[in-house]
Design a protein that fits this description.
Largest sheet: 10 strands, mixed
Shape: globular
Oligomer: single chain
Distance between the termini: 83 Å
Number of strands: 20
Strand order of the largest sheet: 19-18-15-10-11-12-13-14-9-20
Length: 684
């Protein structure tokens, strides 16, 4: 070994050792995986595919792929790295936007419907809030000509050797970073030549997702998303374009299902808060802190029935075996069950809109609706609740998103499916069979739901049609229109929508956070998507002994659920006084911000962050007011910050003052409204 080679070797080992020390403190799991791979290579237990080579003519390092006998940088690594740095600038190119642009560009909201639904009203109110900034302070969503003052969040999609990463960091000085790589062996090579600790110095942060499966990747990306959340306006990225196709799909899916307009702060204030408190005072409310370890379901099997395509295919089996199971059905499956004479034992519904009455309950006879136990979200629409007024004894509500009971559990979820699934897990159901919980398209028809359902979406599944729905062919993204492929319950892969994918992630999260070791879950859908720790079960192999006396069991089931229910008593809500006092502190802070003489966009941005940070210190995590304000930030403040973060735009003091006033008054309205609702609940 020459002197030059010795110096080079020592430099490589120094960088590698430094990275291992960094990872051992910053990401222990990744450190252990890298160390294990290194040990396997050293012992000969693992045969390397990729090798680090120094290209003398180029003066930099390349990766040699022994399988293809190619160099990944084509022996021109220095040119590659220099070009990477030139490609990253303070513009909107290579960004993933978190804006639902249509809401900021449109000038009117369609109010021509005969009957406005909750979301129509909520969206209209939000449009009015946005309009005050658009026309009162001349804010706009100009993407094409944007030049940013700063870039907070950066994605390195693929690493290869990562030699471009420190150079890009020096150029843009980003704060929060996400680094993903599909191959652990390649990432290990990069540890010899790239100092990753630079991404986490001086107040910066980095999240690594190296050769992770989909669920782990999404968890890591969520961590990145939650870092400095109020600066989630857009993500700038650089891609190596080497084995990274799946990452774009996962990242887009992760961001699009966080669209704040799906359930905006105005709708939440009106529906979740106002309606929930009204219904708590009228209906028996379930409290999931009681008897969480009950043995009631020890020897009783449950079929949870959804409205997926597999329901219709297996309805004859369910009809024949209905007395062998406790049948829990979401509202969307009721009409199919009714047509086959199957009366569920429990009905669940979470939809807050009036339209659910027409689509799920209208036309069902009173006997069909009176016999089952009803478990409905506390924000359920009056028209749905009125269908059960004659059976209030077996009608219960549960709190969703927020629990006002002290130390109780609120049931969240994108839809009734995830909410019901969580309820069954909390009730400690031991054996759960999923039927119609497909979360994927029917393999033959392309339908998203059971064929009996009206107004549903169908997709063409031929190769040409699928290709048009693929990410690489699209310039915009949609929760309902895009198709992606996920691991199948029985098949290797199944097509699904981004909306179903978001639900799938909710099911997986429920499995990880709620399911106990002695709870067993089976999915009967052959074409369905795979849910973690859920076993596929061929419907013909199920052998469940008939209940000896199901009528008595249903009576016992009612008694069991009623034990978990409480009737409104204002004395149960005295613990809210402490929270109300904290809201007064927030209102005082907003008054202080209103009085400030703000002369620069940076100072206004600082005060916006000040309120948000103070709010989280006061309220903590998982507080519904905090969630409402966070949604306001994602809808309104994201829009403000996007405009303030403009290199070429100068704001006059008058415009800054207008933004300052609008911001304070809108937030004060939200905090005051929330405070008044809690006063109503606590009987003050």
């Amino acid at each position: 070994m020459t002197k030059q080679e010795e110096v080079l070797y020592e430099a490589l080992m120094t960088t590698f050792s430094g990275n291992l020390r960094f990872l051992s403190q910053y990401d222990t799991a990744l450190y252990e995986r890298v160390a294990h791979l290194s040990d396997a290579i050293s012992s000969g237990a693992y045969k390397e595919r990729y090798f680090l080579e120094f290209i003398k003519n180029n003066g930099d390092f390349d990766i040699y792929d022994s399988h293809t006998e190619n160099y990944l940088y084509s022996k021109k690594p220095k040119q590659y790295n220099n070009q990477a740095v030139r490609d990253v600038n303070f513009d909107s190119k290579n960004t993933i936007s978190l804006f639902n642009a249509s809401y900021y560009h449109q000038n009117t909201t369609d109010l021509s419907h005969n009957k406005l639904e909750l979301f129509d009203i909520g969206n209209f109110q939000v449009q009015l809030d946005i309009a005050q900034y658009k026309y009162g302070a001349n804010l706009a969503l100009d993407v094409e000509n944007k030049k940013f003052k700063k870039i907070d969040k950066f994605l390195f999609i693929g690493t290869l050797l990562g030699r471009h990463i420190p150079k890009i960091l020096t150029k843009i000085n980003s704060t929060n970073h996400f680094v993903c790589e599909a191959n652990l062996e390649i990432f290990r090579l990069s540890l010899f030549v790239c100092d990753y600790s630079l991404l986490a110095r001086s107040g910066k942060s980095v999240v690594f997702a190296i050769m992770e499966d989909e669920s782990a990747f999404m968890e890591k990306f969520t961590l990145f998303f939650q870092n400095d959340m109020i600066n989630n306006q857009f993500f700038k990225y650089y891609s190596t374009n080497y084995q990274v196709d799946k990452y774009f799909d996962l990242i887009v899916s992760s961001t699009i299902d966080k669209d704040p307009f799906l359930f905006n702060y105005r709708a939440t204030m009106k529906n979740i808060l106002n309606k929930t408190i009204t219904n708590i005072k009228q209906y028996k409310t379930l409290d999931f802190t009681k008897d969480m370890d009950s043995k009631f379901f020890e020897d009783k099997a449950i079929v949870f029935v959804g409205a997926g395509p597999s329901l219709g295919k297996n309805i004859a089996w369910l009809e024949q075996n209905q007395d062998k199971f406790i049948i829990v059905a979401m509202g969307a499956a009721l009409k199919r069950l009714n047509s086959h004479g199957i009366i569920p034992d429990i009905i669940t519904s979470v939809d807050p809109q009036d339209s659910v009455f027409l689509s799920q309950f209208q036309g069902l006879d009173s006997l069909f609706l009176s016999k089952p136990i009803k478990i409905l979200a506390a924000n359920t629409h009056d028209n749905v609740l009125s269908r059960f007024e004659h059976t209030l004894d077996n009608t219960f509500i549960f709190e969703t998103l927020i629990s006002f009971y002290k130390d109780s559990v609120a049931i969240g979820g994108l839809s009734v499916g995830e909410a019901t699934f969580k309820i069954l897990l909390y009730l400690n159901a031991k054996n759960i069979y999923l039927l119609g919980i497909d979360l994927a398209l029917d393999s033959s028809t392309g339908l998203t739901h059971d064929s009996s359902r009206e107004h549903q979406k169908g997709f063409e599944l031929d190769k040409e049609s699928l290709a048009k729905k693929q990410l690489s062919k699209k310039q915009s993204f949609s929760l309902r229109e895009d198709l992606i492929f996920v691991k199948g319950n029985y098949h290797k892969e199944v097509p699904t929508t981004r909306l179903f994918y978001a639900s799938l992630m909710e099911y997986n999260q429920a499995i990880r956070s709620i399911k106990k070791a002695d709870q067993y879950i089976y999915n009967l859908s052959k074409d369905g998507a795979y849910i973690e720790e859920v076993e596929y079960k061929d419907i013909d192999t199920i052998d469940i002994s008939t209940q000896k006396d199901k009528k008595q069991y249903i009576k016992d089931l009612f008694d069991f659920i009623e034990q978990k229910a409480s009737i409104y008593d204002k004395s149960s809500y005295h613990h809210l006084d402490e929270k109300i006092a904290k809201y007064d502190v927030l209102l005082e802070l907003l008054d202080d911000i209103l009085e400030l003489q703000i002369s620069s966009s940076d100072e206004l941005d600082k005060q916006i962050d000040r309120f948000f940070n103070t709010m989280y210190m006061l309220l903590g995590n998982y507080n519904i007011l905090g969630e409402i304000i966070l949604n306001y930030y994602f809808v309104i403040v994201r829009f403000i910050k996007y405009n303030l973060n403009d290199r070429d735009k100068r704001f006059k003091p008058k415009s800054l003052k207008k933004i300052q006033h609008l911001y304070v008054y809108q937030l004060k309205s939200i905090v005051n409204s929330y405070k008044q609702e809690l006063l109503r609940l606590s009987g003050q």
